[in-house]
Design brief:
With about 180 residues, this protein is mostly helical. Helices cover about 60% and strands about 5% of the residues. InterPro entries: DinB-like, DinB/YfiT-like.
């Protein structure tokens, strides 16, 4: 059962606010600490959440909200994985490992303020976009690399699922910091 965009917005705000509160516990050195060479720091993980929301998910919502000038753009269907994720309402609880690369690996944050400000920016954009979603056509889709064609509402729900999914990684990274401190 898919949740409404209003419910997703509320859940998203709670999750994003949770990340903001979590950041309070750490100094910059801890936020930049990586458990291993091929894992991200807490700071990089938060950077990933901010940039994927602002530069991929929300940008794709904007694309879906603009009626296409080109009627020849085929509407792409969801992949099996995409259909399963939306049917479940969440990503599978597994670690998704992408090899380090300049295109994908997030930069270390410059400051804690940068992270907090970024999270606030995403919250603000989500609040602005949510009321516009009910008027938008489900026919307008933008392709997701794994999930196939998603409409604006699905991209919106994906932001919330993505933030929730990374709570597992946050717990894993925090445990690493605790082990090190003892």
């Amino acid at each position: 059962m898919m949740i409404t965009t209003k419910e997703a917005l509320q859940r998203f705000e709670e999750t994003a606010t949770h990340y903001i509160h979590e950041l309070d516990q750490f100094n910059m050195e801890q936020l930049k600490e990586k458990p291993s060479d091929n894992e991200w720091s807490i700071g990089q993980m938060v950077q990933h959440l901010i940039s994927s929301a602002l530069y991929m998910q929300l940008r794709n919502i904007d694309q879906c909200l603009m009626p296409s000038q080109d009627p020849l753009v085929p509407r792409t269907e969801k992949t099996e994985i995409g259909a399963a994720v939306f049917a479940q309402g969440s990503f599978p609880p597994i670690r998704i490992h992408v090899p380090p690369s300049p295109q994908y690996t997030p930069e270390q944050p410059a400051s804690k303020e940068q992270l907090i400000q970024g999270l606030h920016t995403v919250i603000q954009r989500m609040k602005e976009i949510e009321p516009t979603l009910e008027k938008t056509s489900k026919e307008n889709t933008m392709p997701h690399p794994s999930f196939g064609g998603l409409c604006a509402e699905e991209w919106f729900l994906l932001v919330e699922m993505h933030y929730r999914h990374h709570l597992l990684q946050l717990d894993h990274l925090k445990q690493g910091l605790v082990r090190e401190a003892t």
